[in-house]
Specification:
four-stranded mixed beta sheet, globular, Dihydrodipicolinate Reductase, domain 2, about 325 residues, alpha+beta, about 30% helix, 3 domains, single chain
Amino acid sequence: MLRTALSLASVTGLSMRLFNIRAGRAHPGLQPQHIQSARAAAYITGGELKGDLPGSMSITYIPGRPRAGRYFFDVGTAGSAGLVFQTVAPALFFAPAPSGVTIKGGTHVPWSPPTDYLEEVFLPAISPMGLHARLNTAARGYYPAGGGSITASISPAKAPASLLQIIERGRLEKIKIISAVSNLPISIAERQIKGAISRLLEFSSLIEAASIEAPSPGRGTSVFILACYENLRAGFTALGARGKRAETVGAEAAEDFISYATGLGALDNHLSDQVLIYMALAGGRSFYSASQITGHLLTNIHVIEKFLPVKFHVEGNAGQVGLVRVDGAGFS
């Protein structure tokens, strides 16, 4: 909700106040990645912030206008660098010139899509809409050390954005498995691949697998499975942890993919949520089928409708396959 509100305030110029932030969570209020996201948005637009403090339950943002430039932001913890990127990307797409952003923080941490996903699934999904950006992970940041680094280059969109219309996945063409370790033996990455492949025997002819040693100031492991379909991509991730068998990490990512592959709907859970802003800003009717209607998706729709003169239509119940459509605002 906060990411979406900050993004749309930055694009539209509408002021916002958000309260009861993360109420009911184990750690309520603003966390470091949320604070940096808000400060980054305000810096890029020349706006004003109130309440951008750790644990704050409310925040007020009076945006200026998006300004192109070269920016550097540091979360300072293992908080998600990807969250910061997703917050500022909409404003920079609608800035008057190309921009570059470097963000330090967590890149492969729980509760947020890793930067592999943003690079390999999210950005390719919005590129046909005329929204072009490149993302590179220079160093990985794991919990609790953080310290990862991503760089992004963002080109201004030809507003309004083009439509997104995806109902069918199409044929499954390829499965890529990237098993990574940082400052740990490469044999762990190889065992993670074995754990994944052991669950994917029926897809063996489509699998390409690679073990890599990824630079990082800390230690960690991950498995990222990229499923390349005829009409889209989907991504699935599992992270290593102390005491967790390498084979289990691979198997977890594989099981998430299998759950998606044997189900219905085109966009995976993360992508279904991430494209909503861009659909609402586009001109004309956009739609997609979702592998699952999540509570997060419905909450984001509620926020978007507060900022833009659009009305989303969702067919399907929470937790089930569904169809999402909207007549975009044609923002330019």
